[in-house]
Write a structure and sequence with these properties.
single chain, mainly alpha, about 55% helix
Amino acid sequence: MRHRRYNPRVEPMYLSRPLLNTALECDPSRGATALVARMISVVGNIVPPFSRLPRRSLMLVAWLAASAFTGAEAAVPMTDGRSGPDPELREILVAVIADADSFADRFHAEVWLTDMSGRLARQVPDHAERLKILRTVHAQATLAGVDPELVLAVIDVESNFDRFAISSATALGLMQVMPFWVPELGYEDKNQLFDIEINVLLGCRILKYYLEVENGDLIKGLARYNGSVGKRWYADRVIERLRTKWFQH
């Protein structure tokens, strides 16, 4: 079907009401569709020369206009902890790094350290290293709002408490933090992720972030942390380790 040429000198400038109604009735939950509908309205009413374009052409113009606004839409979290640096998570980590020394020991923490030291002795025989790991885990987990025992279970599954562990996905250290965080957070060398304090600080905050993304769902949050979204084998392993080894009765 051929469309006759629009002559702005002799024809009125308006968006046809049936087309406008159709656009405004789009389901707002459909994201891009709703945005296009809004842009159809804007294009038709604010830019009159487009008002009488054929429907297909008008939709194309609206899509092109809508594309300029997609960057302003709410950011969607990264799929998981292995995909790349999430911008929102990066802001959290930058702020935490600046306040990394805010934890203060208390008596109950010392009781916790004594208990957990006995449980960890086989995997980390060196007393000084074992206490440093436990102190750091207790401090950073508490600051992040995550149970220290859960963090210990994550470390147990992720690295078996080997602070120099490297995974096949290139994750590093106790909590298997991905090296793409190194330049994002201003560190100079990925080997800094082998540092107990740096690794646990970042790992606790990353874990907390993904738990919040999943509204506290432990299974889904752990899957995001590990990069196994949609599967539960990893979460099951962590929870089993927590139940049988680290949970305080």
